[in-house]
Amino acid sequence: xxxxxxxxxxxxxxxxxxxxxxxxxxxxxxxxxxxxxxxxxxxxxxxxxxxxxxxxxxxxxxxxxxxxxxxxxxxxxxxxxxxxxxxxxxxxxxxxxxxxxxxxxxxxxxxxxxxxxxxxxxxxxxxxxxxxxxxxxxxxxxxxxxxxxxxxxxxxxxxxxxxxxxxxxxxxxxxxxxxxxxxxxxxxxxxxxxxxxxxxxxxxxxxxxxxxxxxxxxxxxxxxxxxxxxxxxxxxxxxxxxxxxxxxxxxxxxxxxxxxxxxxxxxxxxxxxxxxxxxxxxxxxxxxxxxxxxxxxxxxxxxxxxxxxxxxxxxxxxxxxxxxxxxxxxxxxxxxxxxxxxxxxxxxxxxxxxxxxxxxxxxxxxxxxxxxxxxxxxxxxxxx
Amino acid sequence: xxxxxxxxxxxxxxxxxxxxxxxxxxxxxxxxxxxxxxxxxxxxxxxxxxxxxxxxxxxxxxxxxxxxxxxxxxxxxxxxxxxxxxxxxxxxxxxxxxxxxxxxxxxxxxxxxxxxxxxxxxxxxxxxxxxxxxxxxxxxxxxxxxxxxxxxxxxxxxxxxxxxxxxxxxxxxxxxxxxxxxxxxxxxxxxxxxxxxxxxxxxxxxxxxxxxxxxxxxxxxxxxxxxxxxxxxxxxxxxxxxxxxxxxxxxxxxxxxxxxxxxxxxxxxxxxxxxxxxxxxxxxxxxxxxxxxxxxxxxxxxxxxxxxxx
Lengths: 384, 310
Prior knowledge:
Chain A is an alpha+beta fold.
């Protein structure tokens, strides 16, 4: 423990939450959360508003006191430490730059409070890192949103926190700037090598930047893993709907034959990779992403071995340029979305009778009995 | 090469030069300003002019006053009332300091901890002002009465021995002493300190406090480095709104003081109302006070460096 400094920073410190709980009266914002964020990783807490992600972040920063549970940084328990005694810094949602100080002093603030004598070099370096050295003498009010955001990042990063917390830092920026800042943030994270914990409701943002994503819902972690893992193998309908879109069909497992699970859904026989299906009997939910589904006119040839749902009618066609998005209604009333890449295929007009089909290895299975709409409504809410 | 596309300048609608536009005078702002301007002329410019003019006149009430450019009024005004200037200055500065010390925590509490009771709490600060200034001041005679609990307590605690030795109180009384005058002033002017302080504190984003805590500031350091600098407009506004009326106040000195606590206002009143030849010197003192206050206030604002107020 010889490497501890004033604020108790240690080498090799993972952030670990153990049984972390926060209740407001009868409402449980964060419910018995266990989580380990490895040092140096870019970790995203993803969820709809009110899922407890920001509360979790505020407990790590010390701005909120947990009702129960502990927070560890490396081998140190920091649960009872005041926020100003934790080696953790936050980039706030609305930046919270000090309006009375110029950019230089805003960035130097943390160093000065810790009694660092020579702040000139670190501040200049940090302003260079975020490429805003020329604005050092301006006041925050004179900067654009994107510039303020980068200053907020610089002000936190300069303290070399053991964990940097980002609370929806890109939420106030427009789409183009947000994309640019996502790449920028990732670049900076790789450059400084600190642990970043990023809170967001934007799944695309989380997928672009994070090494590991934890999807939160109602104060609990639904699933955690790399973006590709979560996308390809969601473990709940919430994750399947919240991260991208999914076509979910309720069915029953008919039998397991080696690597293949056979399912009946809406009177049609479908197959699944056993490795991607946790269910071996009874109710199952079969999922497939819209970009993995293909359309064929009824009667047209379909590749052998493909799962197929017959008796569909195109009800909506949206040509987006890069792809065409279809909504197909099956005879049973189920709706299936299909994204077809713009590779010069014929565009099917609404009213066309079609068969939807996909490679069985592209589908995934989920435990039956779940609400197949879970997580989908949240996206609409955010879009509204 | 034939120009098919007209140059972009030509397609732009050409703004007519300002001189070519029809001159149209807009009277609305003047009409709206008229009542205010009229008020200022009648109740501000005219009285200032008569005061300044009276300050260099001679004469008496029965024979009338004549403009004789009698500058000696000013030497009299400046030399004969030193004690009163001193008292006015000391009492108003003390009043301002105590109001700030008492008002800042109150305003801070209401602004940051008041929650849904903010408006109610601010109303409580202002409500006493609905009673007459005189009545509120006279009420302090009861509060500080010799047989009242305050004086009893201070006597029992032997505090009055000390304060009387220092000249703040007299014997074992609080009434009719400099302390009573300052108490009355602080009480009467406190809302004038709290209101601007509250307004500027309330504007501060509480998330800045969190940012302070996040960046290694203890609660006190956060206040010192973030809240205080951001509330400076309120501090300056509040102290000015307190100091300016306080330096001219004489009701508190008259009702709660003694003959040795005379302030400038009392002298001006004497000269105007109880001295047939007093108008010129009274006016001269008024002008001195006005100029003096103005100079003090301007240098204070300059020193505090707040342009928002001017």
